[in-house]
Specification:
The protein is an alpha+beta fold and 151 residues long. Strands 1-2-3-5-4 form a five-stranded antiparallel sheet, covered by helices on one side. Strand 4 and strand 5 form a beta hairpin. Helix 1 runs antiparallel to helix 2 and helix 2 runs antiparallel to helix 3.
């Protein structure tokens, strides 16, 4: 399984680079051309969300992007270093332990976070959001059919 790993400082200007790399690797992995715009948009949303979380929590660790080419699928994991509580899968988009939980009022940042997750869910059929004590991950995958090499 070929894998590309990308790490970048939590600066908005690096999101564009992540989008370009994701599209190039997705194309090479055999993701349908008609879906590449969705890949770019979803990666942009996930990376922008991670950058916002890092900046909002004063975290200097890099944002990570792992692009993996499988036999019949292409997946991308965008990771942040914002601590959560537990390793629960979060389907509603709300990360446990982040402001706006059941005991805290919702903030504008929480609304933006939920909006970004809603956009990603609308673009990607197979998406999973996980939160853990060492950070969160958005995992997205698309079907792929690698090109046949003619010798």
């Amino acid at each position: 399984m070929p894998t590309v790993e990308l790490r970048f400082s939590a600066q908005p200007e690096h999101v564009r680079t992540a989008r370009l790399v994701a599209a190039a690797v997705a194309r090479r992995a055999g993701v349908d051309e008609a879906v590449l715009d969705e890949v770019r948009l979803a990666v942009g949303e996930a990376c922008s969300r991670a950058v916002g979380l890092h900046r909002g929590h004063g975290i200097t660790a890099p944002v990570s992007v792992v692009l993996t080419e499988g036999e019949k699928s292409f997946s991308i994991e965008v990771g942040d270093a914002v601590p959560g509580h537990g390793s629960d899968s979060v389907s509603s988009g709300r990360r446990q332990g982040v402001a706006g939980g059941p005991d805290e009022p919702e903030t504008d940042t929480d609304s933006e976070d939920e909006m970004g997750l809603a956009v990603i869910s609308g673009l990607v059929d197979d998406v999973e959001v996980r939160s853990a004590p060492d950070g969160g991950v958005i995992r997205m995958s698309w079907p792929a059919s690698p090109a046949v090499v003619v010798s």
